[in-house]
Amino acid sequence: MGTRLPARLVLLSLLPGFAALAAGDGSVAPVAEDGPAALAGKAGEAAPAPTAPAETLVSTAAPPLIPRPDFLSTLVAPGAMAKFTLAVAYDQATDQIPEWGPAAAGLRRRAQILFGGHVVDTSLEYSISGWRHTDFRYARCQCKRFPARARHAILGEFTERRADGGLALPISRFAGAYSSTLAAIPFLPSRYGALDALNRGNMIVATDLGFNFLQEFWPEIKRALLHGRFRPAP
Q1: Tell me, what DSSP letter sits at residue 66?
Q2: Three-state DSSP class for 27?
Q3: Which residues are within 8 A (CB) of 4 and not within 5 positions of it... i.e. 6 or more apart?
Q4: Which helix (H) or strand (E) holds 219?
Q5: In this predicted model, what pLDDT tens digit does every residue of 87-129 receive, in sequence order?
Q6: Domain ranges within the chain, ordered by starting residue
Q7: What burial class does residue 72 get, using C-beta atoms within 10 Å of its C-beta: 0-12 exposed, 13-18 middle, 19+ buried?
Q8: Handedness of CA 37, 41, 45, 46 (dihedral sign)
């Protein structure tokens, strides 16, 4: 937990998501890229009238919610295990908590602490999102253009989806991330405190944001790896 992100960088990373939420009551509905107005512009005609009141329309920026898996499946999901493995590898390679050393004993202690934090993180995300009826999982944008997809990946870290297709504040995600790092403090050397937990929580948020981009553009990344081409829509 010795790595600390500058406070200005952390604040700048939070601005895009919360700026999108500042205009409402803590929730915001995403805008579909290809709505009626866009279609009308392409055809040169007037936009068709909506078939339902605006507040009942569901955005197509992300697919509808699907029933979430049980807790154990969420805990050991491939994406979650990939993040856990990456965190262990990073901490071992950079000798986080130097008192534990770089040998196998240090690796074991780092893995134990990080997996315990992962359990706390997932438990809070799962329980709070269930109580709030939101989904903290990332879902690819149904839009096609690169700017819209990149915006969706960023917004996805600072929001959670509601059943009606709207977005809500990421209470379960942030509660899980920062509580998991605070819960680890008693098991670390005495020189580590709340500020270290805060910085580690910031790293979790940054890692999640990176994984959002990885999931969003994975089809293009896979094609580039297999065929040497990366061509998202302009």
Answers
A1: -
A2: strand
A3: 195, 196, 199
A4: helix 218-227
A5: 999 999 999 999 999 899 999 999 999 999 999 999 999 999 9
A6: 65-227
A7: exposed
A8: positive
